[in-house]
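Check out a protein:
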Amino acid sequence: MFSIANWVEPPFLYLGLPIGGDPRKLKFWQPLIDRINSRLSGWKSKNLSLVDRLILLKSVLSSLPVYFLSFFKAPAGIISSIESIFNFFFWGYEEVRKISWINWDTICSKKEEGGLGVRRIREFNLALLGKWCWRMQVENRSLWYRVLSARYGEVGGTIAEEGRLNSVWWNNLINVKNGAGVGSGSWFDDNVGQEVGDGAQTLFWWDPWIDGLVLKNSFSRLFDLATNKMTMVAEMYSFGWGVEGEAWQWRRCLLAWEEERVQECCDILSNIVLQPTHSDRWIWHLHASNSYKVTSAYNIS
C-alpha cells in the first residue's frame, strides 16, 4: 500500500528516465552521459581497429541515447558532449589525444555523399520527437492523449499549442512540430496529410484534407464568418457544399467579394466524392507505408 513515507521528491529516475527535472539543464542528462562512459570503460580503443570502432559506434554507442532522445529535446551542450565522446572513441583517444583526420560532420554524412553514415544526434533527436507529433494525430482516442488534452486544452480538434501553463516538454514538442531544426519550414505539417474516406473524422476547416490544403488558412475570411467552425467534412457534404448549399452558415450576410471566395472554395470541393465504406486516415508522405518512420524524417536533413 502506498504511504506518504514512500513519496520521493522529484526529480527522480523512473524506468530509466528523470521525472520532474528540467531537460534544459545539463545535470538532467548526467545519467545518460554516465551510461555512455560506463559502456566505454569496458572497451580498449587501442585493441580495436578503426573498422571495429566504427561498427561499435554505429551499432552500440549510437543506440544508447535513443531512449532519452525519444522523450526529451537535448540542449546543444549535451549534443556536443555526446558527439565529442563518440568522436574520441572513434579516433582511439585514451591517454594520448590523436589527430582527427576527418571532421565529425563528414563522418555523419551519408555514405553516398562520402561520409560514414553515423547518426547526427541533433537531427535524430528531432526525428524521434516527431513520432509524438504523429501519434497525436493517429491516437487521439488513447488515454495518454486524453490526459494531455485535459492538461493543455484543445483548439481545432487538437491539443492546444499555446498556454501560460505549458510544460518545458510540451513547448519543446510544439517547437519540433513547427519546424525547429529538421529541413526548413514546418517540416512535420508539410509532410503529413489527411486521406478522406467517409469524412466522419476530418474537420472541414482545420485538417489538411485537400492535397494538404487547410481551408481555414486558404479561406481565412470565410472561416472567420462561419458559425460552424468545428464541423466535420461528412456533415458539410451531407448538407450540400455547393454555392447555395445549406452547409454554409454565416454570422452575417456576405459581401460581394466574400461570395466570390465562396465560389472559389466550391470549385475546389466540386470534384470531391466521399467513400462511405472507408474511414478517414492520416498519411505520412515520405514513406511508402504512409505511416511515420523516424528514418524518413531524419533523412529530411
